Amino acid sequence: MKNKDIIRLIESRRKLSSPGNLKKVEMEGGCGVVGLACNEKISGKHIMQSLIQMHNRGNSKGGGIAALGLNSSQCGVSQKILEEDYLIQVAYLDPSVRHQVEKEFIISNLDVHTSYPLPTLKDYRVVDGLDMKPPEVWRYFCRVKDKALSQFILKNNLDALERPKAEDEFIYQNTYKLNNKFYTSLGEKRAFVLSHGHNMIILKIVGYAEQLIEYYQIENLKAHIWVGHQRYPTKGKVWHPGGAHPFIGMNEALIHNGDFANYYSIAEYLSQRNIYPLFLTDTEVAVLLFDLLNRVYEYPLEYIIEAIAPTTERDFYLLPEEKRKIYRAIQTSHIHSSPDGPWFFIIGQTNTKEKSFKLMGITDTSMLRPQVFAFQENGVNIGLVASEKQAIDATLRSLHQEDKRFLPYADFYWNARGGSYTDGGAFIFTVKGKNLVITDKFGRQISVNKEHDNPPINISAGKSEDIDPAEKIKEFTETIDQRWRVPIKDRAGALSKTEEYLNEIFLSMSAKKQAGNLYRYTDREKKDSLSPPKSKQEILVINCEKFPAEGNGSIARFMVEAYQLGWKNFITFNWRGQRFCACGLGSESNDVRIDVFGSSGDYLGS
Q1: Among 195, 257, 261, which Cα is nearest to 223's?
Q2: What is the CATH number of domain 3-440?
Q3: Which of 38, 77, 449, 461 has its CA 20 to 30 A from that of 87?
């Protein structure tokens, strides 16, 4: 886009009335974020368990999801309409205003090919823990009317703009006007636009994200990309459904974990370009900034990431000289609008021109918020990103239960280093057709060299009946702990098999004959009948699967109770992200040993 066209597009927004207040009204703590991209469409139910296991990262004041690359038959439209129409979803907090909203902002400006309300459960109270009724949501498949678009182009001198880009801007401004009239953070809340992109949806509620999936009955909705968010607002109004994540750009859904120290600076930068936040949250200004850099300035993705998360200090000087020149110019222009403070973004994006879908994870330069990436290739390819590894494992485990091509563990896990000269602190999973490609900030494809792989190992040899259970446990534990022993090309399969065999051993100890005098098995159902150990060497084997993550009935509390009965040796397995392991044992517990197996999570001891 030429400079004069950029200026005209920005000038066309001058007629949008400013809400008058740019001050952030809320702060957020350590939110839970998760995203996945797959070269096959997968159901929404598979992201639910990861969201459930990140309850401690939310407080029921905001949950949301985004789905991109949908199934046309499930949406009730043709593939052509799904790909070419704007899929607008409006949340009606006050259903009585629907006809007014449609008259002013939908029917008057848009050709509506299909519209319908999203199905829901009849009674929201059926959903465990959901305290507030979610909004009524209507879905509209639309295109801007030719006459309305032509008048918009003529009125704003946008004739040099490609018609699809002008149509995007019309939809963007139409959404702003609707939200400004029917929903503002500090005013009356009656209706707001959830999403308006191509082949994508956003839903959000005051509650937890998995409650949303259940209430709107999208467990079986299929999509190439899923994004989920558990919100943890710590200051400000909590009854603020529009403040939950994700937030919409144009064809982007952005969620984030963190808090900006320079919200006002970013909002001022945007207002100078006639862009005004209405929901007054960090996430909203983040996606507005991304949309400006992407759709208006048309920066390449690498430069967008540099403008948001600038490369500094040693990493900057390790870049090639030509790249340093470009990055210095970007930083000079955008450093005052670069988000400052702890943050981690997950962004889902549709590209109608390329017919592709992207899942992006971008971390701040200081890396002050947790993030982990993962990839699995086993006949079907899937990339994942989340706040914690255990959330990734929960998604893969759910997929594995339905489709054995997916394995309970990924082939590779890694962390991004913010502002790194090696990979830029950002990774992008791109789905196009049947392919899934991973690239870094610089556009370099990520691959693993399997030519110099480790020699294969015979995991099943450890199952021999002639081997003592203690020796079996030791052998399988070393396979898990010493990753160099596991061949890269079959890491997910090897680790999954190892855990399967270990679980077989541990579960067999529920029979006294199998357990002998050394082991005693228990689980959540049997915990109340636990008695003291018969000897100092006796090991308590605990199946953690059904224990809650925290609270009085948690595995952590049960271990304290067992310790008080005299137990000093623990084997715990089937961890599913529970917290506070060994907390509460006291200062005299140096002789206690706890072995942890499963997906323990980043908050195992806290």
Answers
A1: 195
A2: 3.60.20.10
A3: 38
| DSSP E strands, 210-365 | 222-230, 233-235, 247-248, 252-258, 343-351, 356-363
Backbone angles phi, psi at 104, to 5 degrees: -85, -35
Gyration radius of the chain's alpha carbons: 26
Identify the bridge partners of residue 521 per DSSP, sorted by sequence position: 541
Residue 446 structure tokens = 């990520």
Cα(85)–Cα(94) distance, rounded to whole angstroms?
26
Cβ neighbours, 10 Å, residue 87: 24
Q: For the residues of 538-559, what is the DSSP string, one character each?
A: -EEEEE-TTS-SSSTTSHHHHH
Q: Domain extents for the chain?
A: 3-440, 459-507, 512-599
Q: φ and ψ at 530, to 5 degrees? A: -65, 135
Question: Tell me, what's the pLDDT at 112?
Answer: 98
Mean pLDDT of the chain: 91
Q: Is 432 left (phi over 0), alpha (psi -120 to 50) or beta?
A: beta
Specify the residue for token string 């830029």: 424
Rounded to whole angstroms, how far apart are CA atoms 581 and 604? 6
The pTM of this model reads 0.93
Q: How far apart are CA 182 and CA 179, in angstroms?
A: 5
Q: Which residues pair with 139 in a beta bridge?
A: 89, 116
The Cα-based distances of 366 to 83, 290, 312, 344, 525 in angstroms read 38, 20, 10, 10, 45
> Looking at residue 511, what is its pLDDT?
79
Largest CA distance in the chain: 87
Strand partners, 230: 32, 63
- Assess contact for 470 and 537: CB atoms under 8 A: no
8 A C-beta contact, residue 246 and residue 66 = yes
DSSP characters over 475-491: HHHHHHH-GGGS-GGGH
